Amino acid sequence: MRFGIVIPNCGGDYADPRFVAEVAHEAEEAGWDGFFVWDHISDKWAPEVSDPWIMLSAIAMRTHRLKLGTMVTPIPRRRPWKLSRELVTLDHLSGGRIILGVGIGGGAEYTDYGEQADNKLHAEMLDESLELLEELWTGEPVNHQGQHYTVQHVRYLPRPVQQPRIPIWVASVWPNKNPQRRAARWDGIVPIGKGLGPLEQMSPADEQACEEFVRAQQSPERAAQPYDHIHWGVLEGKDAEADRALVEEYSQVGVNWWLENITWSRGTLEEQRERIRKGPPGVR
User: Fold this and answer.
1) Would you say residue 95 lies in a domain?
2) Which of 5, 17, 48, 151 could be cross-linked to 144 through a Cys-Cys bond (beta carbons 3.0 to 4.6 Å apart)?
3) Where is the Luciferase-like domain (predicted)?
């Protein structure tokens, strides 16, 4: 089991890139394995919003070992060729530590800017964008004529540090099946239970059902490769034995990344700083 921190990129001190980078440094010193930030642009969640890519750049400069990334980027509101450049630059800046979390997003972050709130359309755009990103990351000449994107006579260099490409984790709302099928084709799944509150987490039984469904969609070749199953969890950090026991329940059903869900519902980032400094429960 590996352990990460996930925080909003908005709201009070969560939106302060200098402070967040310092907290990420402290998380690395405390033994956490990853540090991830939300990717929102609207003030729907909180009035103060920082760009996640600049925030991740600051974190990359203050850390050496942590895996870094977005949880998650709604790619349909991005130009995939621009996103490709940003990710490869971050991969080089961090020495090959970037993970891309993806989803379709929705709601105000489309409609407030005059864009369609069409989940089916966004799912199509997400799938095509992922294919295009994979093509661009090869460093070979790309000519892409798709339903939503056209790229002609381009070659993107440098290639990512990570080969054959930057890992991609796919978000889903369990038990919706189409996102699980999409996730099966890539490097990991980030399920969130439908209707859960901000500090509620999927049960081990639901995580097991998700794991079994995703694995059933994979080819034997894909199933034989490493695959990440990410759980959004809450550990109080007050009873190490109880925390280890809870994590072990999830480990037994296929979860291999625990992302500690640090949000305003638990207080300011300053208030959660001591919790982060305590580190993960030490289950490996």
Assistant:
1) yes
2) 151
3) 1-226
121-146 tens-digit pLDDT: 999 999 999 999 999 999 999 999 99
Q: For tokens 């352990």, what's the residue? A: 3
Q: Specify the pTM.
A: 0.97
Tokens representing 64? 């050496």
SS3 of residue 211 by DSSP: helix
Distances 117 to 38, 42, 113, 120 between C-alpha atoms, Å: 20, 15, 11, 9
Q: Would 269 be classed as within a structural domain?
A: yes
Number of structural domains (the chain) is 1
**Angle between helix 177-184 and 119-136 (nearest 10):** 10
Q: Is residue 282 part of a domain?
A: no
Helices (DSSP H) in the chain: which residue ranges? Answer: 17-29, 52-62, 80-94, 108-111, 119-136, 177-184, 204-217, 220-223, 240-251, 269-277
Let me know if residue 283 belongs to a domain: no
User: Whole domain around residue 137: which residue ranges?
Assistant: 2-277
